[in-house]
Specification:
This protein has about 325 residues and is an alpha/beta fold. It has 13 helices and 13 strands. The chain has helices at about 1-10, 15-40, 65-75, 105-110, 110-115, 125-135, 185-190, 205, 240-250, 270-280, 290, 295-300, 315-324, and strands spanning about 50-55, 80-85, 95-100, 120-125, 140-145, 160-165, 195, 215-220, 230-235, 255-260, 285-290, 305, 310. The strands form two sheets. Strands 3-4-2-5-1-6-7-8-13 form a nine-stranded mixed β-sheet, with helices on both faces. It has a four-stranded parallel β-sheet with strand order 10-9-11-12. Helix 9 (about 240-250) links the parallel strand 9 and strand 10 (about 255-260). Helix 1 packs across helix 2 (about 15-40). The N and C termini lie far apart (about 45 Å).
Length: about 325
């Protein structure tokens, strides 16, 4: 089902356009309810700077990598940073939970584990409640919010949106006819910064050159250059093709690829199957850092982890404007 929707959202072929038109009435209902609901929010203001790193598209925009880069840069300014997120993919339904480095993916989700290795990280089912708790702990100067741009129930001091340069905004339609959570223009007029990851193939900076917006381009850099091998790449993230393309652009010899749904929980059967196929074809398995934390530890020694970081030109300027 996920592959079907990705095709109709991002491919410019006649059957994709027809499928989008079929779902268009549902999109009208969705977006009407979205903005109607927003009218009843109080937009509560907190006495702590809240920076939201969000997106308009569903998944695969590079939000996690962007946030990790911002964490690293803001910490250089001697600011105490914390991260708050929903903990998507976890079984933890606590209204407020502080993530430990020893927690499992099942308990807190993959992004939370990555953030917890850098800064205090919290997951919640109620952002307003969690923000109050974090303030009361008096250990945070700046709160970074993973996602939540569409949550109008509280005030964000700054909002930064991430966009995949290759995908852009897809067919520019809202769910389920398209990949968008809300309409493009109102969303961009509510943000202050947009980070485009990769080449801006859809000319977003020219089409949406609003006075309130600053655009930054980011490039993906491999943290470690792994040994040259013949690889079987697999992943379960929001943009699997983006991962495969990055590997090949960095010179990795990818002979076989396997895609799983976003935040997929790998079973031992899945991993045994991948290992068997790789062995038969004399290939080495490789996956993303987000996928790697979802793999049982006894399997990790047989799988390479491709770690990346984002390079953002003028990042000093961006950080200065975000935190001041």
């Amino acid at each position: 089902m996920e592959k079907f929707f990705l095709k109709i959202w991002y491919q410019e072929v006649y059957y994709a356009n027809l499928a989008s038109l079929f779902f268009f009435p549902l999109s009208c209902i969705y977006i009407s309810l979205f903005y109607l609901r927003a009218l009843f929010y109080k937009n509560k203001k907190f006495n702590i700077p809240i920076i939201c790193i969000g997106n308009i598209n569903i998944g695969g925009t590079g939000k996690t990598s962007t946030l990790l880069t911002l964490i690293e840069e803001i910490k250089k300014k001697d600011k105490r940073v914390s991260v708050l997120l929903r903990g998507y993919g976890s079984k933890n339904k606590s209204i407020f939970y502080k993530v430990s480095k020893s927690d499992t993916f099942n308990k807190v989700g993959d992004e939370a584990l990555l953030y917890a290795n850098c800064v205090p990280t919290y997951i919640t089912t109620n952002r307003n409640f969690a923000i109050e708790r974090i303030i009361n702990e008096k250990q945070t100067d700046i709160l970074l919010l993973d996602d939540g741009f569409q949550d109008r129930s509280f005030h964000k001091d700054k909002s930064l949106l991430t966009v995949n340069g290759k995908r852009g905004f897809g067919n520019k339609m809202c769910l389920p006819a398209g990949p968008l959570r809300e309409l493009i223009r109102p969303a961009l007029k509510s943000a202050q910064f947009v980070v485009i990851i990769g080449d801006d193939l859809h000319h977003i900076t020219k089409k949406y050159d609003y006075d309130n917006l600053e655009f930054y381009n980011a490039n993906i850099k491999a943290v470690d250059v792994l040994d040259k091998k013949r690889y079987f790449a697999f992943s379960g993230i929001g943009n699997n093709d983006g991962f495969f393309d990055t590997l090949m652009n960095k010179g990795y010899d990818v002979k076989k690829k396997k895609s799983f749904p976003d935040h997929y929980q790998f079973t031992r059967k899945d991993l045994e199957s991948l290992l068997d196929k790789a062995k038969i074809e004399n290939l080495s398995l490789i996956t993303t850092e987000k996928d790697y934390v979802r793999i049982p530890e006894d399997y990790r020694k047989n799988i390479d982890c491709f770690k990346i970081k984002l390079e953002i030109p003028n990042v000093e300027k961006l950080i200065r404007k975000l935190i001041n």
